[in-house]
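From: lab user (bench 3)
To: helpdesk
Subject: output format question, protein + calcium ion

Hello, I'm new to running complex predictions and I'm not sure whether the block I got back is the full result or only part of it. Here's what I submitted:
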Amino acid sequence: MSWGQNRKTWLMMGTALCFGLTACSGGDTSESQADTRRTATNDAAPCPALDPVEFRWIAGGTLTKGDDAQLPEESGPARVKLAGFWLGTHEVTHSEFSEFIRATGYITVAERSPPPMADAAADMQQPGSAVFTIPVDGNPNWWRWVVGANWRQPSGPADNHQPDPREPVVQIAYDDALAYAKWRGMALPSEDQWEWAARSGGANPDAPPSKAANVYQGSFPFNDKGSDGFTGRAPVGCFPADKNGIYDLIGNVWEWTVDVADRADAASPAAERQNVIKGGSFLCASNYCARYRPAARQFQERSLGTDHIGFRLIDPTRPPPPQSPPTP
Ligand SMILES: [Ca+2]
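Helpdesk reply: Thanks, we reran it on our side. This is the complete output you should expect:
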């Protein structure tokens, strides 16, 4: 499926790209973006210095993935054998991605002119991406196609918020994440690796404890209380590391994995270019989404980033630490 077809699908179907968020739109983007700024709330404590260790070893073994399914895209628990691996301690940041762009001149998917697409709204035929917007009277949609939204300006050019260099980079399509990983000589994690890292790190199987992860407090989508300190993306490493020394696996931004979606409706053309994303985001609330559990998963069009999807790396070439036991 082409990118243009994907955007058309998003425009016409909505649900395939919006994590079950049925209120999507590619229509008018002229309404104020000011209410959607991704800024820390006033009671946010200063974030500690970023951990200088970039990768931590996640010991392998025979593992349980999945859980008693709570949502349609989930499956029951299964046993899988997994080798140990080196996982990035934090999501790739805006600053780190900037280095990649400076070194390579790479142009992300959201910055490219989209292929021609018949019967699409004019704005959908210009470079841009999907941005969360608090619904307003007369427009109940909370996902909008915003012309000019990309990794440099995740909410679009009308928003004055400049990403903190330590924020996870967002508006990253799957191919963008792969390109960055290749440049670094790294790779993206599999779903199994991601889930095992979260489980072995001690992530709560039901929901993150208060202020343990950047999620949504209040009634989504209208009232993010930000009682965890943030009403949008948090700089990486602001919340406590897990037992493995990994930050923000749960919440903050969803993370790409290399696994192709195995959704039940895979026969649908809209499912052809979707990958599994994990971890939930700052938009996951108890009254909606609630996919901040290690077992939770969602499917995302590879060609469409949003302002709440990022990624982290694994280092597949680095040998295990000397004390690491063989995988049983
Ligand atoms: Ca939050």
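A quick orientation on your result: The chain has one domain: 40-107+163-328. Let us know if anything else is unclear.
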